[in-house]
């Protein structure tokens, strides 16, 4: 862990010393955990509205046609269900936890840009290695199964 931190510190110093003076990209100054732990009355109301919307979305096709004639059409039911689900997610997006989740997604995107992805040749080679190892272990397990079936059949 400390080696990784040292590497990151070294990379930060290198970027800071370069001519471009590029600084590391940060999305938020506040920790995602701190934002997610905040509680307010607005959050409680939005969570309750979202829960009611999601439960209602599951009950649309069963109960709504009994009380509203146009809801007998399947497309109306699908539209209302999708609308309720989207409304529920929008309510959740405006809570502190939703804000923390959006920040987490932005931070994950930044981290994905830093990943060194394997080349096509490496991917093909690793894929064949995994396929070959799977076949070998499959044959070993099959042989063990046959052996134990023989032993159990002999005992019984």
Automatic annotation (TrEMBL):
**Subunit (UniProt):** Component of the Sec protein translocase complex. Heterotrimer consisting of SecY, SecE and SecG subunits. The heterotrimers can form oligomers, although 1 heterotrimer is thought to be able to translocate proteins. Interacts with the ribosome. Interacts with SecDF, and other proteins may be involved. Interacts with SecA.
The compartments listed are: Membrane
Q: Which keywords label this protein?
A: Cell membrane, Membrane, Protein transport, Translocation, Transmembrane, Transmembrane helix, Transport
- Protein name listed in UniProt: Protein translocase subunit SecE
User: Which GO terms fall under biological process for this protein?
Assistant: intracellular protein transmembrane transport; protein secretion; protein targeting; protein transport by the Sec complex
From the record, give the transmembrane residue ranges. 44-62, 74-95, 130-152
Taxonomy-wise, where does this protein's organism fall, top ranks first? Bacteria, Pseudomonadati, Pseudomonadota, Gammaproteobacteria, Moraxellales
State any single GO MF term.
protein transmembrane transporter activity
Q: Please give the superkingdom of this protein's source.
A: Bacteria
Major place of residence: membrane
Query: Is Transport given among the entry's keywords?
Result: yes
Q: Where is this region: Disordered?
A: 1-22
* Function summary: Essential subunit of the Sec protein translocation channel SecYEG. Clamps together the 2 halves of SecY. May contact the channel plug during translocation.
Q: Which GO terms describe its cellular component?
A: plasma membrane
User: What family does this belong to?
Assistant: Belongs to the SecE/SEC61-gamma family.
Q: Does the keyword Transmembrane apply?
A: yes
């Amino acid at each position: 862990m400390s080696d990784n931190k040292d590497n990151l510190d070294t990379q930060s110093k290198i970027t800071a010393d370069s001519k471009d003076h590029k600084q590391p990209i940060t999305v938020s100054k506040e920790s995602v955990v701190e934002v997610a732990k905040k509680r307010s009355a607005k959050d409680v109301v939005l969570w309750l509205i979202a829960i009611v919307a999601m439960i209602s979305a599951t009950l649309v096709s069963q109960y709504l046609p009994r009380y509203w004639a146009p809801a007998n059409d399947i497309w109306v039911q699908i539209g209302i269900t999708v609308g309720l689900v989207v409304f529920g997610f929008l309510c959740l997006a405006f809570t502190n936890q939703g804000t923390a989740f959006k920040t987490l997604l932005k931070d994950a995107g930044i981290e994905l840009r830093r990943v060194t992805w394997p080349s096509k040749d490496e991917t093909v080679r690793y894929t064949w290695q995994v396929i070959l190892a799977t076949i070998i272990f499959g044959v070993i397990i099959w042989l063990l199964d046959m052996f134990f079936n023989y032993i159990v059949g002999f005992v019984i």
